[in-house]
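thread: overnight batch results

M.L. [08:02]
morning all. the overnight job finished for the chain we discussed friday. pasting input first so we're all looking at the same thing
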Amino acid sequence: MTRRERIYQKYGGRCAYSGTPLEPDWQIDHVEPVQRLWDGRIAAKSRDREDNMVPCQRAINNYKWAYPLEYFRLVLLGKLHFRLRKYPYSGKGGERRKRMEKIAAYFGITPDKPFKGTFYFEEANNANT
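M.L. [08:03]
and the structure it wrote out:
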C-alpha cells in the first residue's frame, strides 16, 4: 500500500477536518505545518512524517494554507460565520464569498451557525481511545 493510500484510509476516506467524503482531488495536509523553501526543500523535516499527515479536501487545505492548527480553528473557522455576512455577491468579493461558502458548507457553518470548534479527526481519535 502506498503512503497516499494509507493516509486516505486513516479516516475511512473522509476529510480529517470536516469529516466529509473525500473528493477526487483531495490532498495530504500536514496538521502541524512544514515550511517549504523556495527550492522545494522542507525546513521542518521533523514534521514531515505520516503521523502528522491527514487526508483533506483540496479547498480546505488551500484555506488552511500553512497555518498552525489552532490558528485555523480559532481565526479562520471561528470567525467564518461573521465573514459570510460581510462579503458581497459580485465582483472580487463574490469570488471570495464562493470560496468561503464552499469551506463553510464542509463544516456546516452558516452566517447564524458558527464552527463547532472540533475537527473530525479529533472526534474520531477520541472515540478510539
